[in-house]
Sequence to fold (390 residues):
Amino acid sequence: MSPRLALCAIVLLAIVGGAVAIAWGRSGPERPHWEGHGIKPPDKDFPLPEIVSGYWFRTKETQAIQDDDFNNPGFFAVEQGEELWSKPDGAAGKSCASCHQDAATSMKGVGAAMPKWREALHKPVNLEQQINICRTERMQAEPWKFGSAELTAMTTYVRFQSRGMPVRVRIDGPMAPWFERGKQLYHTRNGQLDLACASCHEKNYGRNLRADFLSQGQSNGFPVYRLRDQRLVPLHERMEGCIFDVRGIPYAPLSDEFLALELYLAWRGTGLPVETPAVRN
Amino acid sequence: MAETKPRIRLDKKEVRKGQIVDVKTLVSHVMETGLRKDAAGKVVPRMIINTFNCEFNGQFVFGCDLESAVSANPYFEFKFKPMESGTLKFTWIDDEGVRIEAAETITVV
Fold:
């Protein structure tokens, strides 16, 4: 081989090697494959080009825990909720089952349509609030505290009856101002970091925020079993966490602000299947 | 803490002699590490399952000691080869000495 040819070969090798290195660098660490798993938004003006469940933003390992109902620790809450369902409590001596009988039929689809308008209170209520309304009004029992294992378990159990059903909330009529309030809150910057929900979950999902891989912040899997907390986390607690993380002062759980946000979030996930109890990191 | 029954799944309950059975177990437990502090700054005492044991007809099959780094609701999966019909007995013991027990029967045909 002449020296010239050898030089050519080395240069060629260097170019090919460089190209391989660039390609390698681009692919980087393996990412959860979320693209192409979304569903189509209901209309053109929808804020997201496709609606993707948080499931697709998590690693294969986390997905595998959720895929297997045996493995999914969220089912401990489902079992606990099932037990509480037929356990009488309060002065009226009633249980959930006294009025609603079998949850598998009576609660089917209920969780997918919350929050819902309650004419008597002249405001919408979410699942947690509805459970406590039943407890105080019908059962004459003490309401469960937000964040208690019982309330979260019952919420999980009721929402689980809608698993696989599409999320669909009403945003018309008296719900309209609540929807607008939620939308406004979603786009309002908050805290020292000056970030709105939309900053991460609308403009930057599918990208990394430091060590966090950002999802669309969909609510279809809630209450979710968070591996970080090693227990079920209700939606309002998760939103509290988000606001805390941007160094803002969170609204109170079950406050009107979070309720409006919950409504808006549910609408953003229109058509996504309920995954409760989902598993997230 | 709410006590829920441990969950056990065998991939088959009727096996030929010497066939391998896949055993999966999941138990509900807080697994408090003993390193966390509560809102008042007091250390939350350690409260973990420290032993897991599985016996088949009284004979040791699988077991381990757990430490505080194990996350809540410990999950174990193991395989074993039953040579006769019998009962698998599972025992979890936590720091307070509470024993969580469960059993499954296997038939060798």
Notes: Confidence is low (pLDDT under 50) at residues 18-29 of chain A. Residues 54-280 of chain A form a domain with the Cytochrome Bc1 Complex; Chain D, domain 2 fold (CATH 1.10.760.10). Chain A touches chain B through 13 residues (CB under 8 Å). The two ends of chain A are 58 Å apart (CA to CA).
